[in-house]
Amino acid sequence: MNSKKIVFKRKDLLGIEELSREEIELILDTARGFKEVSIRPIKKVPALRGKTVVNLFYEPSTRTRISFELASKRLSADVINIASSASSVVKGESLTDTARNIQAMEVDAVVVRHPVEGAAFLLSRVLKASLVNAGDGSHEHPTQALLDMFTIREKKKKIEGLNVVIIGDILHSRVARSNIWGLTKMGAVVKVVGPPTLIPPRAQDLKVQVFYRPEEAFIDADVIMGLRIQLERQTSNFFPSIHEYVKDFCITPERLKLAKSDCLVMHPGPINRGIEISSSVADGACSVILEQVTNGIAVRMAVLYLLLAQKQI
Amino acid sequence: MKTNKTQVILDKNGVSKTIARICDEIAQRNSAKNGLKDLAIVGIRMRGAHIADRIAVLLKSKYKAEVPLGILDITLYRDDLTTISAQPIVRSTEIGFDLTDRKIVLVDDVLYTGRTIRAAMDELVDFGRPRNIQLAVLVDRGLRELPIQADYSGVSISTTHRQIVEVRMKESDGRDEVVVNSP
């Protein structure tokens, strides 16, 4: 019954690309056990008592930072939040120098979000502490993909063989990249759809099917995953106008009808209502957007637990 | 030639008789005022949970008592998380009732160092304030490292640290038995 015992040997969680299917399954299985902790009268277990987790955020975030903070606290770890705007970064300190100083304070894990791809990898080579990538530029956002897979598995009881559509700005999206790695490893059929300018060149190399019209991609979908249109990048003319994008790519009730009747609608947040997703879909019966947020805590607890609970040899 | 010795402590019959006896003792001791109404049974994953389940079934069939049943996974409360070589798989705890002011019978298969029971009690009190906590075990093998004792024990045997006490339950292992392996 308890025969498969995989040990999670990693020091860091940098991306989904480097994980095996077995490791992904171990994280998701572990997260299942943690979900119940958040509905207890006392939402706390002593597993990481005495450990220190630093949230080092060089980009704005509410969901991810709060989620990591709650996950750490519910495991009884101590948490420190550093926002770059309020730290010595504004005085010109480099990323590695900031990290080395944090290391000198004997912390056990650093959760980092940074606008540059590879920032987490760079830090992981400098630090003895475990590193968790909470988003590096357009590269990866592994815990988001893990919580998405957790939510899909909880709702659909499996991932293998499901049709999963990812729609929107695939080019700039670390959420899309991490999900593509994870979902294909777990055996899902992944389809990406968006304006040609927002689909990365050679997307097919990632074992995904590419579409340019949601009307084609949505047929028989089990899961539709929306992405935030990054309005701050709209100056670069990736599509003619917001109006045009809404007309062609917004997840509307009409388009949703093409998918399976029990299709899940997901979104990593924050959502732009009426742009990439219509309000009636975001708040509708198929939407699991808020459950994703709930599950995020359990998944991050599992990640921190697996990285930190027994690393003392 | 034979280096390993296996001694059967309880066979199938022995296991069910012993659980029945523990159940009778629990009923006797707790039914003074208002029957078994404020009692609850909580088993420790995983074989303690199977034994707890059987005790609850017996309390219902023999004493007509509907006793709430819970399951504890004590992994996150262990004191050896940083020293063991592989993390045990985390599974969920299921306490679907309010345990404040209830009498709780905590159930495990083997009582050994007492550290599991310490962890289980820490976890239980995070769910509320029970009136009391009693401990029932199928096997007490001695060698305690903490001041903990069982209120109900199926069999008490004296062992050495090198011996391995194995409890097998039909639900997880296909058959009921308790054996001691001596190297």
Automatic annotation (TrEMBL), chain B:
Its EC number is 2.4.2.9. It catalyses: UMP + diphosphate = 5-phospho-alpha-D-ribose 1-diphosphate + uracil. One of its GO terms (biological process) is regulation of DNA-templated transcription. The keyword Transcription regulation applies. It comes from the Bacteria. Keywords: Glycosyltransferase, Transcription, Transcription regulation, Transferase. It is an enzyme of class 2 (transferase). One of its GO terms (molecular function) is uracil phosphoribosyltransferase activity. Residues 18-171 form the Phosphoribosyltransferase domain. A motif (PRPP-binding) lies at residues 104-116. Belongs to the purine/pyrimidine phosphoribosyltransferase family. PyrR subfamily. HAMAP family: PyrR. Regulates the transcription of the pyrimidine nucleotide (pyr) operon in response to exogenous pyrimidines. This is Bifunctional protein PyrR. It comes from Candidatus Desantisbacteria bacterium CG_4_10_14_0_8_um_filter_48_22.
